[in-house]
Amino acid sequence: MAHTKMALALSIIATSSPVSAARQDPTATPAAPSGTPDTRYCMRIEAITGSRLEQVKCWTRDEWAQRGVDVDSDWPREGVRTIG
C-alpha cells in the first residue's frame, strides 16, 4: 500500500512539472508591447490569500505604475494580452 501511495505521489509531481513549464512562453517579448496612454495591459496577479485561483487584471501603464508594477519588466512572466 505504501508503494502505491509513493507511486501516485511521484506521478503527480512528474505530470505537474510540464504544466508549470508551459506557463512560461519561450517566445515572450522582452518588454510589453507599445501602445497609447489608454492601452490596458492585462497581467496575472497573485492569488488572494486562501484562494488558489489566479486573477488577471487589466490596467493602463499609469495604473500599474501607481501600484508599483513596472509593466516592461513584469510582462514576460505575467503578461496575458493588451486591450486597446
List the helices and strands and how they pair.
Elements: H1 2-23, E1 40-45, E2 55-60, H2 61-66, H3 71-78, E3 79-83
Antiparallel strand pairs: 1-2, 1-3
Question: What does this entry look like structurally?
Answer:
It is globular, with a radius of gyration of 18 Å. The N and C termini lie far apart (56 Å). It has a three-stranded antiparallel beta sheet. It has a domain at 37-84. The protein is α+β, with helices and mostly antiparallel strands and 84 residues long. Helices cover 43% and strands 20% of the residues.
Keywords:
single chain; alpha+beta; 3 helices; globular
Mean pLDDT: 76
Largest sheet: 3 strands, antiparallel
Helix-strand makeup class: alpha+beta
What sequence of helices (H) and strands (E) makes up the elements?
A: HEEHHE
The total count of strands amounts to 3
What is the global morphology?
A: globular
Q: Please identify the oligomeric state.
A: single chain
How would you write the strand order of the largest sheet?
2-1-3
Using only CA atoms, what is the Rg? 18 Å
Total helical elements: 3
